[in-house]
Design brief:
Length: 437
């Protein structure tokens, strides 16, 4: 009996000293608390809290557990940031430590994954690629040189819309904007168009993709630029047009500004954009409500502390830009489309003296390098659509007060913010830049 008691005592002491030794070897994990966290399940962690719309899931969790929370996604540690003050910690105070993007399990299996710019780990290679991008593609000189390309693609779109307007044909504005952004970006990156109206368009695109993959490691660099410059610009342009169609007073005020600066005898161009402050306010407000990417992903490179909470090395960090820019503590009527909020004395910029209340392109070293070009491109698209056309909304609408159709503003389920339903309209030509040609 005594031997059995001693045996049990030895086992208890063994486990006690094992736990004590682990505590002594890893004191920080015990001494420093981690951020608040919802209940988790074995193996899957917090994955059961998620819906197809990731930003909505983060929003619901933040509303209950706070603006800084810890999640376990299977085996992956994740910290979610949902306030401007915490975003400043990531993008400014500890920017270098959060300047890498997460590594995904399948990432190294993709062709030329390690040659990419978007997902490259922060270091000499990434700095070289960013310098190359900014000097050879996105510098002011290069943007000016490619202005003619963007103008040509815009005129192609305008010609088609004018033809559809004369025939009273319905246009899927989203699909047309996809062609515009795809072709503009393809010509910038690969010096060729990638979509059009030919019957063999799909085959041409397949051949183009095959050719680009034969360019070895160049494909990853080109792919980053293509993905970053097409879908997101298209979605923001669609949302901006949808909000303008739902707010005719804003639409008319913007048109009056364009007419007062540009006149009624020539087409608005990129040269006019600095002189159109209300247009800039409209696009900024659309970017606030519908950021190009609602969740910005980073990785903690070294152990650190945020607001007294311990963040271990290699923890994935998700900055909920969607939540930050709809925070009712910062933005009055935060879910309402109101460009007037960007017409006051407070200036919201994408770079430099950046306000972390307004981060549509992210922040810090890994902010979108093409933000200035994207803003200019979207602004020019919106100005042209407003100057040249009135629009009759077709199809599903979410409200019909006073007999006026309104665009359905439901957001689709995706990592970005696509419209759930196509933006289908009949363009009514108001100014035809091709008259007399």
């Amino acid at each position: 009996m005594a031997d059995s008691t001693s045996y049990v005592l030895y086992i208890i002491l063994f486990f006690f000293f094992t736990i004590l030794l682990h505590y002594l070897l890893h004191p920080r994990s015990y001494a420093r608390p981690r951020p608040p966290s919802p209940p988790a399940l074995p193996l899957i962690g917090h994955l059961h809290h998620f819906s197809p719309s990731v930003y909505k899931s983060f929003h619901n969790l933040a509303a209950k557990y706070g603006d800084l929370l810890f999640l376990r996604l299977g085996r992956v540690r994740c910290v979610v940031i949902s306030s401007a003050s915490y975003a400043a910690e990531i993008y400014k105070n500890q920017d270098v430590n959060f300047s890498s993007r997460p590594k995904f399990a399948f990432g190294d299996e993709l062709p030329y994954a390690k040659a990419g710019f978007f997902a490259a780990e922060y270091g000499d290679y990434w700095r070289f690629m960013k310098k190359l991008t900014m000097t050879e593609l996105l510098s002011q000189r290069q943007v000016e040189r490619s202005r003619g390309v963007r103008r040509e693609e815009m005129l192609k779109l305008l010609r088609k819309l004018c033809e559809c307007g004369e025939k009273k044909e319905v246009v899927d504005l989203g699909a047309e904007l996809v062609k515009l952004t795809n072709n503009s970006t393809c010509r910038l990156v690969m010096s060729t168009r990638c979509s059009g109206d030919d019957d063999d368009e799909a085959e041409k695109i397949r051949l183009l993709v095959k050719e680009t993959f034969e360019m070895a490691s160049k494909v990853a660099f080109g792919d980053d630029l293509f993905l970053g410059g097409t879908g997101t610009s298209t979605e923001v342009s669609q949302w901006t047009m949808a909000e303008l169609l739902n707010h005719p007073k804003v639409f008319n005020k913007l048109r009056n500004e364009i007419n007062s600066i540009v006149g009624t005898s020539r087409l608005v161009g990129e040269d006019d954009l600095p002189n159109l402050p209300y247009l800039q306010a409209v696009v900024k407000e659309a970017l606030r409500l519908y950021p190009a990417v609602p969740i910005a992903m980073r990785t903690c490179r070294q152990d650190c502390t945020i607001d007294g909470y311990h963040i271990p090395k290699d923890t994935m960090v998700a900055v909920n830009l969607f939540d930050i820019m709809r925070d009712p503590k910062i933005w009055k009527n935060s879910n309402e489309f109101d460009p007037e909020r960007f017409t006051g004395d407070v200036q919201y910029e994408f770079k430099g003296q950046q306000s972390f209340n307004f981060v549509p392109f992210g922040g810090g070293r890994r902010a979108c390098p093409g933000s200035t070009l994207a803003f200019s491109f979207i602004s020019n698209v919106i100005a042209t659509m407003v100057q040249c056309f009135d629009w009759k909304i077709i199809g599903r609408s979410d409200n019909n007060r006073d007999g006026i159709s309104k665009v359905d503003m439901e957001i689709g389920a995706a990592f970005t913010l696509p419209m759930a339903n196509p933006l289908r309209c009949v363009p009514i030509v108001r100014f035809n830049p091709f008259d007399g040609i």
